[in-house]
User: Fold this.
Amino acid sequence: MTLYVNGQCVDPQTIEDEIARLRPEYERVFADMEQGAREMQLVQWARENVIESVLLCQEAMRQNSSISPKDLDEAMKEVIERHGGRVAFDRFLADHKLTEQQIRRDIEVQIRGHRLIEKIESQAPKPTDKQIRTFYEDNQARFMMPPMMRAAHIVKHITPGSDPEQLKSELLAVLEQLRQGAEFTKLAQMYSDCPDRGGDLGWFSAGQMVGGFEAVLMTLQPGEISDVFETEFGFHIAKLIERRPSVAIALEQVRPFISDELHRQFRQKAIEQYIDVLKITAVIEDR
Assistant:
């Protein structure tokens, strides 16, 4: 059976190409679906996408907006260049039994289609302040700064030829000085392999440091100093300087992002509604 849209035959390969395009993301999202049902749904979605694309192209051609020969020539030139030049392009035509006129026709359809979509999208409204505020309030979890920590460390890196036990022993001696009241910053500058800023790592959120390092920090209260511990980078002494709880990002900071997101949704909705109207009178059949 072959798909026809308003009497236009749709090459089955077009649907196969759309299936291939959708498959990677589709199988990731629907990995838990039973394989047979998943494959059937994928084919249905690909077929529906192709039908919608054909309907838009047919409508774009029906509207018969003018395209200058210059625009077509420039688009054709880009196609030839993408194929590696005139010789390679001519070989492509011969291999696929196509003519240059057919390619120009396809390009014209694409240009008209793009212009129609731009026209539809231009009619989509801009989001209002109330819509932006409502989106912000309904999606508060998306606009939160994660909990943050500020910490410092004194580290001894394990390098080829170094003696791990000696390095650990050196840090144990440093730890003893800290427990006797020595200043962390000064000892970091004197003994750490990363002495810059007195070992201060600045602010960071969960996942930005290696797991073993963060796990130790989670056991500390601000101002507390850890025992000597080992990570893949060497031996450390860590100091938790401060914690900052998760806080909401102010609406004004994310307003441009929300406005763009809502406007994108409105444009997509406008296209979907336009296609729904085209489907009402469309003749879609398998022969």
